[in-house]
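Bench log, entry 3. Co-assembly request; chain sequences pasted below exactly as received.
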Amino acid sequence: MLRGLSRAGLGSIGSDERFIALAGEHGFQTVDIDAKGLIDRNGLEAARKLLADNNVTIGSIGLSVEWRQSEETFRAGLAKLAEDAAAAAALGCRSCCTYILPATDFKAAHFTVIATRRLRTCAQILGAYGIRLGLEFVGPHHLRTAWANPFLWTMHETLDWIDAIGEPNVGLLFDSYHWYTNGHTLADIEALTPDQIVHVHINDAPDLPVEEVLDNGRLYPGEGVIDLGGFLKALNAIGYKGSVTQEILTKEAPAASSEALLERSKAGFDKVYQAAGLA
Amino acid sequence: MLRGLSRAGLGSIGSDERFIALAGEHGFQTVDIDAKGLIDRNGLEAARKLLADNNVTIGSIGLSVEWRQSEETFRAGLAKLAEDAAAAAALGCRSCCTYILPATDFKAAHFTVIATRRLRTCAQILGAYGIRLGLEFVGPHHLRTAWANPFLWTMHETLDWIDAIGEPNVGLLFDSYHWYTNGHTLADIEALTPDQIVHVHINDAPDLPVEEVLDNGRLYPGEGVIDLGGFLKALNAIGYKGSVTQEILTKEAPAASSEALLERSKAGFDKVYQAAGLA
Amino acid sequence: MLRGLSRAGLGSIGSDERFIALAGEHGFQTVDIDAKGLIDRNGLEAARKLLADNNVTIGSIGLSVEWRQSEETFRAGLAKLAEDAAAAAALGCRSCCTYILPATDFKAAHFTVIATRRLRTCAQILGAYGIRLGLEFVGPHHLRTAWANPFLWTMHETLDWIDAIGEPNVGLLFDSYHWYTNGHTLADIEALTPDQIVHVHINDAPDLPVEEVLDNGRLYPGEGVIDLGGFLKALNAIGYKGSVTQEILTKEAPAASSEALLERSKAGFDKVYQAAGLA
Amino acid sequence: MLRGLSRAGLGSIGSDERFIALAGEHGFQTVDIDAKGLIDRNGLEAARKLLADNNVTIGSIGLSVEWRQSEETFRAGLAKLAEDAAAAAALGCRSCCTYILPATDFKAAHFTVIATRRLRTCAQILGAYGIRLGLEFVGPHHLRTAWANPFLWTMHETLDWIDAIGEPNVGLLFDSYHWYTNGHTLADIEALTPDQIVHVHINDAPDLPVEEVLDNGRLYPGEGVIDLGGFLKALNAIGYKGSVTQEILTKEAPAASSEALLERSKAGFDKVYQAAGLA
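Structure output for the full assembly:
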């Protein structure tokens, strides 16, 4: 399993080019960035060289299509999605991810059928380029009532949704924070096959009652109460070989320098990989 | 458009064999019955002859699979669905229909994804035999709150669901009663293509505020306030050529003899087809 | 059924803008042009106005994706396909068509599976914009051996392929010339439902043995031996309401002026529509 | 990876019940048998107990649907397929396999589209029960010309076909004999993900020029020239955890007793698992 970083939790790290260099320097193997932007700015060959020189690959791109609002907005994003997918494929990245808010102001059943169709279209376009679509279920309890109607938030609901979408290249973005806040278990991970997981996020949670854990109250790996050793061990046991990417969402931006935050992140990964018997 | 009958509204009409004979005698062209049962009791050749001798075909079979409850129950019905479809195809019937209750006690979003996948499977099995699946949206307002959570009830929601199901052989069961109770218009019909309609039901409604119209308070065609002439004219204009089938759901069974009810039904069809300029 | 024109058979008619104007002047209702190009040159509002002022709509756009060669070439066209589809939808066009050569230098079975997947992807992208994909089977016998291995060329084979592609928005581009050179009958048309036809081409054939009829030896409607009256009558009877578009492929460009060729085309349409009882 | 047996290569081993007992006795973990037959003869609970008592599970059932001949024959098998799948699921088996002959007397392109649609339908029915469909490519050269037209026989062609079928639950039945006779490499295995493999067959080949190796000239594992150690090592490295099932097809039935053949099979597995570093 590859050690990965997103920009969340690294402060003002600057350009993606600098992010790549610093990630590599600190022993991280993947970064979540915009593949198309990297190529647009550098050209394909230089973008490839930049990644290779820093021993870094792209863990996942984000789904740029807005699939939660109007049909017009949705359609307007599809041509760019094809370009995003082409760029990701050209740089060897095979994952594209989006998150699922656990509530909606739309009528739930109607929103579900529309979103099912739209995410299927996104998966089909990504699939033409060999890219997989990862859906991130979101566990913190406060978000379940942040909009009028409950939507989907557990791993099992999301797997059912993936079945409804019905494309071979759709799976989970599996985030330890959402696994924890849902009260899911190690057995829930062990029941998965690796192809059901497109991407993994790793975050830690404060020592609070689980219902009070906030989505933007995340801690660096190893600094909180989630059993991240067990989490990683279970993922490794089922054969997951992809990226495990840190994404520290916090209410206020961290004050330390990016270099300090990278050190802190590295120390966190070392700790939890060791706890998993993987270091 | 073919004049069709279901058993609902015809009293104690007896066996399907008698139903077929009486439907033919009264000038109806289709009946909604269980194709497999007809073959099981009579053999394929005799079943075909019975229909042919009475100038009657099967308008639609009903979906025998229980797709609203447990996964176990759902799966248990799939082998019979294949047999139902084979029987229907052998008798020249190309439609199979089910209805959608407008509310559910399950969490709406989760029920939607499960039902999407299950109805897709049903459509796929039916499609292997050249049979289409018709989904009936259900309009009466009182049913929208008869279970805990709102589901889908309008034509437009149902068309969106058909898109989410994503199989080429799924369309609407279009019932005048549900069109009326939803407040849909002639323009809503005129915006359809005929392949979006798998089957049509015809019923009339009492002169009540539309919010008070009950699902089991239906009238024979021409005896109520629905613009059935306009309804049929619009269906004909878009090129619909299938069955228009009466299905009179009432709180209490009608007291008259089946023969009298057939006469009444025939008179109703004559009246509304004439109003549509189709008689 | 709408009277439609492509540029093939109209000589040096100039820009699409002039084509639209001349088509409208001669009473044609649709033109097959590149929707995206029209918008790119004129802007969306002016493009809409140009069509409306000339009482012309777009019959179909052509599929710009190269689905017959390398995977790289295929993928490179998908972003533009989304843009083409968006442009077509913005101008009210709902059809996009491609043709199927009846032989291939690739191994037939392998080419079939690759092309099935690629055309499905094209259909999925088009479907996101409400556009249908029409597949044109190609009948002239000489093309069946023009490449090493036989592929698909009959209506029935193409319908089977559409089933294999499996998307709801795929149907036939039905060309009278290919219907004729395949020896298909009026009964073959009458067995279709209108949703199986995305677009229609009309052409006439010289009085030669059918095996000797060349793909680029086409005549204007009414000038040859094809029963175009029967052809149109059958299409109308099944409920087809779309465009019937002339596409005169000839070995040498016609010598007459575009105005004269438009007159000739109009006379041909008048003759065959009259023969069909539709004028 | 589980050590598995089919009946092929075990002589007159008698009933499936005896087969299960003897497989267990000789340390094999899976058997390929007809799940429905086992339940029909024993009842579900006794069938489960029989397997459990012998520490054996079912590796894969065979696809009972005839998908290569007439549409009528195909459809006639679908109800039984649902029953087969239900039986397999009830016994914990998640695989169903069929083989692909590398040539066909049908026109190749047309057969391909029909078979694509039919295998998709089979996959959809199996998928409703959580069962995967494995497609076995067949490598021996003599079969490529045993029928009039070439079809598909390599791993890569078959993966392309799986993409064309387009269902999430379709993958390869990967047989060492077909891997070898196709001249595929260890790198070809290493490029796969485990979810692309539904089932594995293991067989060895005589020391002949690869073009002369016959489909029914197979040897027990470790008795021939295939690098089965490398084969197993590569499968293990990519994370395949399913069954590796022997299937010795020979021109003449082996003369030895089933017990002796089981010993011979066990010795073969011991040898090649050891060569793979897995014993």
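The first helix of chain C runs from residue 16 to 25. The two ends of chain C are 11 Å apart (CA to CA).
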